[in-house]
């Protein structure tokens, strides 16, 4: 398997031209704050002084997790496929927010423990009906992990979009994400673990024990792909592949909550320049997410106490991305509006 080469977005000459355009708008310099940094970043990603958010898409990847056998979620595994049906019927939060924001939505079965049959609206990339219990063995074989990564890359090869948002669905996947976080960052499991869909304090303590046990079992997994295979999920590996290919194709990558960011930890361990292409939509209410973002030196756009996943944060961030490219394209300049500039 070929890991995509990703160039950094570094381009001092274009950055200077973007900065000039931004500073020439009728506002005190820097006063549009984060939106100015976004406009500059999107311009550098798209290699354009006139960046656009014209064709946004969100991909929601679903997969099941063998580690649910350890009793680490407040909900049964069957909710994964039932929510996939809900996505396909248009009734989930992500359907509502994607529609509200004029965003294409793609639903992927990367490894759900359910036979959906032939469905035109479901992208069938099922590698297996769920991962193995990573307390007993690696969640994925190396081959299956590579299959999920490649499926993510191939999926993005067929996409026509400029902004690619990520979401996921998978009962048990906050356990997978917390284990990935601890393995990739060296942060203690106790500081990675959280309530997920709604565990109480006792449930969280048990989840921490499960993760610590698995970290001991797979202590030899050091290379990024080995860590991903040991603790990941099919939906997480699919997202890793899709992120790497999306960055290679110079898409803006919209990062959602705790699980999607754990996929980014793996992607960044494989190709650190992928981070240049990322916009962090929000800081999730899942306990470890703030620490994960800090580790990546990431500044999320919003803090809404969301802990849903599905790409809901990605969808809700779209108006801010649009505001960033719109002010750059549509605001008057000091000279066009005859407004005096600084000290002038
Ligand atoms: O995105 C987040 O930050 C987030 C935080 C907590 C839970 N979730 C969602 O909840 C599910 C996993 O929770 P759990 O408790 O089953 O591990 C999965 O479907 C995720 O989309 C998502
Ligand atoms: C109902 C439900 C919806 C979800 N969406 C994402 N994760 C979820 C988990 C549950 C339990």
What's the topology here?
Layout: H1 12-23, H2 33-46, E1 56-63, H3 78-89, H4 93-100, E2 104-111, E3 122-124, H5 142-157, E4 163-169, H6 173-185, H7 201-217, H8 224-231, H9 234-248, E5 252-255, H10 258-270, E6 278-280, H11 289-295, H12 312-330
Parallel strand pairs: 1-2, 1-4, 2-3, 4-5, 5-6
5,6-dimethylbenzimidazole binds at residues 75, 79, 83, 169, 197, 308-310.
GO molecular function, one term: nicotinate-nucleotide-dimethylbenzimidazole phosphoribosyltransferase activity
Pfam families: DBI_PRT
Keywords: Cobalamin biosynthesis, Glycosyltransferase, Membrane, Transferase, Transmembrane, Transmembrane helix
CATH architecture term: 3-Layer(aba) Sandwich
**Tally of separate domains:** 1
Radius of gyration: 20 Å
The major pleated sheet works out as: 6 strands, parallel
Give the overall form: globular
Number of strands: 6
Query: What ligands are attached or bound here?
Result: nicotinate mononucleotide, 5,6-dimethylbenzimidazole
CATH C-level label: Alpha Beta
How many angstroms does the end-to-end distance come to? 58 Å
CATH topology: Rossmann fold
Give the overall pLDDT as a whole number.
Answer: 98
CATH superfamily: Nicotinate-nucleotide-dimethylbenzimidazole phosphoribosyltransferase (CobT), large domain
Question: What is the beta-strand fraction?
Answer: 5-15%
Structural class: alpha/beta
Q: In terms of per-residue confidence, which ranges show pLDDT below 50 for 5 or more consecutive residues? A: none
The side-by-side strand order for the widest beta sheet comes to: 3-2-1-4-5-6
- Estimated helix fraction: 40-55%
**Count of DSSP-assigned helices:** 12
> How do the helices and strands follow one another from N- to C-terminus?
HHEHHEEHEHHHHEHEHH
